[in-house]
Amino acid sequence: MNEAPGSTLVLAGFPALAALAAGLFVFQAHVSGDADEAGGRKAARQAALRVAVLFVVPGALAGSGALAKMIHPPLFMPMMASILVGTVLVSRSALGRGIATGAPLALLVGAQGFRLPLELVMHEASLEGVMPPQMSFQGLNFDIVTGALALVLAAGLALEKVPRGVVLAWNVVGTALLANVVTVAVLSAPWFAFFGPDRVNTFVLHLPYTWLATVMVPFALFGHLTVFRALREGRAEGVTPRRSDGSPRPAGAHPPARA
Question: How many CB atoms are located within 10 Å of the residue 72 CB?
Fold first, then answer.
């Protein structure tokens, strides 16, 4: 595979979209505490600290060349495993619960729209030989569907009622597509080279592409986990309420309080 650094579009696109994803995470944390301005600032600081770690630590390892060393076990794999586990833990923390219950559902869904321009930049990276083709939408990556539908669904949630089942179905599909592209990326790693030695995924071992894996993938995962939690917590704005028997709930009616 061509080891060229990529065009200006590709070199600038990945860090710009990583910054967008990070900014959306901090913004979600901030607006989740709108009822308490001090609480919103505190949540935003906590989110910003976590984002800084995801940028700085992997960035330093990639910039030093440590991630690109073909050692066994490779440093990149346990690093990513710890980041993904940490993402799940954050989604289950007080910060994650605050975002799931306090940030607008349209924002939680719409934030995943960053995956649409991301897939376009990844496609260009594939055409330039920076990224293996199986990781683009011309290969085995269909995540562009999640990003496009997120924008449409978010608009629906903001403007009118959307059936809860539609939101849940989108979130399930989006989670599956994210798992798919992560699997393709792992199988494309040089330690596996499942798609052949000329189609290996080494670009994420270098800056600025490392942030695709360490910032954007965790944000996408956090977003899906948060939407699942929001639906489980009974979030209703923009969502068509349902009775327990599946029939529509009258306008203005609310589900019974939990014991």
Answer: 6
